[in-house]
Amino acid sequence: MFDILLDLDYTPFIISFKLATITTLLLFILSVPLAWYLSQSRSKIKPFLEALTALPIVLPPSVLGFYILVALSSNSPLGAFFENYLGINLVFSFTGLVVASCFYSLPFMVQPLQSGFSGLNQHMLEASYLSGKGKFVTLYKVALPNIKPALLTAVVVTFAHTVGEFGVVLMVGGSIPDETKVASVAIYEMVEMMDYTKAHLYSAIMVLLSFTVLLSVYIFNAKEKKILG
Amino acid sequence: MIEIDVEKKLYGANGTMKLDVTLQIAQGEFIALSGKSGSGKSTFLRILAGLDEAKGEIEVSGKSWLNRKKTLPPQQREIGFVFQDYALFENMSVLDNLLFVSKDLALAQKLLAITELTQLKKQFPKRLSGGQKQRVSLCRAMMRRPKLLLLDEPLSALDAVMRAKLQQEILTLHREFATTTIMVSHDPSEMYRLASRVIILDNGTVTDDGMPKDILLKTKGSQKFSFEGELLEIKEVDVIKIAIVAIGQQIVEIVVSDAEVQNLQIGDKLQLSTKAFSPIVSAF
Questions:
Q1: pLDDT tens, A9-50?
Q2: Model ipTM?
Q3: Which of A113, A223, B117, B243 has its CA 20 to 30 A from that of A34?
Q4: B2-216 adopts what CATH topology?
């Protein structure tokens, strides 16, 4: 039993977690201003932005993957720009996976943050403005520290969701060993090759890891609620 | 000197209403702003603070906060604002709530001493009582050394004892810093105790403006006591009728004549007055 575990190739897991870490970090930086804007804005374009951010939840991963593939390929202006000027090939590469994951997981970062910001006492934010502080200081010193549970939920769900993604990764990244073959894709291939022992092990590891991560979030949030309540 | 001439269209429960207020306020005045709910009091304060938009002009000690060309944002108006719901920064201790506004530690300590909060300066807002929170909020508003202090029903969520204590502290702070203050209030005793001028707002316009005693003392004529109350019940006991009336926090029974009962309905607002010349007064 231990021999099988020791002989197992863990590279797909490492790629999965590397992808999830980078995606989560990038999305956090991009989503905090976006979620803040959406929570504070009464502009007419707000519903459009909200619908656009939520789109990856309802679209089949194949649709999303197809469009991202088209947009990133060297035949499109965007893909050509990256390839000619920056020397980055966005299709069937790890960089391309990161870009695709950012689109795919965007709502999972934006939505908890937005609902956290919207739930804040508006008077508290106004009190900050009345203290002479601008939007930036108010966001980082008052708003963010007061939505800790939402913050944690956003980060963890985005991370877990990126680890769990399959369709988009397969379409945009292909299944290049040690480059774009993530855990979920590796399991798919094992099942296809009827290597059920390894498929079982990989799957069990995924279930265990995902459950542990989610459990810690819920335990933290329950504690946080107890302190706040 | 503060000169205000503002107007704004409001959408309330009774359709649209125009808020139109022209006021001159002298340096150091303490104004109590009263009126029915929905009369535009809170909106007026928010316009002064720059939290709500309006047309018109606001000039404070020669500096324009609002005119046709520009609207100064709240950050650039020297305003202290106290919300009814305290609105403290939950992630900061009492002292940090104050220092967030300005790094003036000496001022923060002085304010905490005046409001007897020094012991609690390391506590977080969630551990404080309502009265303590509102004192912190008051101190925080003073940290900017504001030219204008705006209090939006600051004490209405507190019980009577705490209210009296905070009234005293507001008065102490006002004497200490001589900050021009506008306080929204519904409590006549509070207004009488604190304010040097009372303004009544109705349907968006000023309907009364003067000294507290001229506006609040309703004992015109020869009656000596006058209370406002709400009729709860009329009981028939043998041959007389007794009205049960709520006056403030107290329920009282009053004998009423048949003729008086004719005009009364449960839930009516009543004015009760008497010509008693030798009331019994005792402290408690």
A1: 889 999 999 999 999 999 999 999 999 999 999 899 999 999
A2: 0.80
A3: A223
A4: Rossmann fold (3.40.50)
Out of B90, B100, B126, the one facing A131 most closely (by C-beta) is B100
Q: How far apart are CA A48 and CA A65, in angstroms?
A: 22
The model scores a pTM over 0.90: no
Whole-angstrom Cα Rg for chain B: 22
The per-residue pLDDT for range B159-183, each reduced to its tens digit, is 888 888 899 999 999 999 999 999 9
CB contact under 8 A, A126 and B81: yes
pLDDT at residue B222 greater than cutoff 60: no
Phi/psi at A44 (5° precision): -75, -20
Q: How is residue B118 annotated by DSSP? A: G
CATH of B225-274, one of 2.40.50.140, 2.30.110.10, 3.40.50.720, 3.90.1150.10: 2.40.50.140
The number of beta carbons lying within 10 Å of the beta carbon of residue B168 is 12
For residues A174 and A180, is the Cβ–Cβ distance under 8 A?
A: yes
Give yes or no for A140 touching B (CB within 8 A): no
